[in-house]
Amino acid sequence: MVKFFSKRRLKIAEQIIVVIFFAVLIPMTVSGIIINNINQQSNRAQLRSAAVMIANNVSEEIDVFVNSIDNELAQIVATLEYYNSPEQESKYLDTVIKNLVFYKELAVVNESGLEKYRAYNHRDNLYVFERKLKDGRYLVAVIDVESQNKNIFKSLLEDERQIYVIVNGELAASSNYSQKGYENSIAQLPKHLEDDKAVIYGNTKNQPLAYINKTSPKALVIVNTTESITKDTIDYNRDKIILSIIVTILTVFFVVGLYTSYLYINIRQLFKAIIAISKGNYERRIRLLTNVFTPFEIVFLGTEFNKMVNQIHKSYIQLKKKNKELKQLNEFRSNMIDTVSHEFRTPLTSIQGYTSRLLRQDIEIDEETKQKSLKVIKRQSERLKRMIEDLLVIPDIEGSRLNVNMVPIPVNTVVENAITLVKNDAGREIVNNVEDCAIEILADHDRIEQVFVNLIENAIKYAKEGSPISLDYEIGENKLVVLVKNDYDIIPREKLKTLFDKFTRVDDKTTRTTRGTGLGLFIVKGLVEAMNGEIRIYSNEECGFCVKVMMPISEG
Known about the structure:
- Helix content is 55%, strand content 16%.
- It has 556 residues and is an alpha+beta fold.
């Protein structure tokens, strides 16, 4: 068994069954056997004591009955001495029989007539007492056995034991007579009987026999404990003990089984939660079945486990967030390197080329060519400056650290200034419908100007060839809406959702036809929101690409 347990770990339910078997079932069974044995010994001693007590009681009743008969017969004999004729004697005896009903017959007979009465025995339900008169005759008293038994066994009428009174080898009186019981009782008598003492004998230990061999008057009293009495005492009590043990064991099994089932359910919940956690499901919680059978330790363990899972889940969400940020940072770094290497190379190449031309000493450069080269160098330098400023403003936008000076500004002035700053090399038509709007908005002058410059340049960059750029306005509730529109192919909804991200462009790397870092809309959104405004983009049949900038209206 030790080898079996060393190879296989038992489950909790199996361990509880083993514990119950060794700690409850075996001790209770052993205790039941011991208690039953003690109970049998006690009941057996009680039966033996009862047999002895009844034998003594019957012996005393016989003494009382015999003494009573002897006294009465002595009085009758003394009285008969005064009568001289048989007629007077007969009349007197009739009177006695009427007064003493348990006498069936009283007669004065000679010795020859005595033989008839001596022939009576227990089978005739008669018992004969005799007394010798002075003249040699005998007074014979015939007593009904049933009346005799009522006198001798009057205190044992409800007892089921078989009692036999034997005189001169003949059964003189009995209670609960049974032929088989009488024969068995006689057969088991020892060869040598002790006188005037109650003695237990017999071969069946749970059915004790008792006898008293009386010397005066000479009689043998036998008490037989029947099988029914044994059943009513030893067997009945033994069955009650066994039944109580069985009920106790079943109750223990039921209570422990109920307790084990609830405990097993809760532990399985814990196992399932642990397995779920091990597989990466950090949202799994333990749902305990709590009742009076749920131990405090299990409830405490479940509560603490759920707290731990909550912390793990929070840490996991934070880790996912950090990983996403790290991924975005890696993408930002990769895109920035791409952008810097791609977008910065063109203006630097132009600046380097035109600078080298101006520095050449082997040729003579006219004034017009010099001015043209210097303008190109200036324009490319400004382009580099804008790209660097765009890159520098990104950390401030992401960290919400933009410093803005909110002042009332006429929207038409801001838009007109932005149009003059826009690089419009393609000569696109810009329709400014905002010039008629003198409403003042709350914004930072330089930041809002940068917003409209970026939006107008972006609209020019992606507009279809020959199509105009239009600027309109709408007045909303406490806000002024400025719309920048161009004519462009409808942009898919999925693509629109990503245009406010860093380094995102309408045309990807494979279809790119325009220059730019892909930071314009990201910076515009950050600047607008820093000034308590809102920005939205649309693309449909009426408006190829439309940007709405909503800024708060100045109340002054």
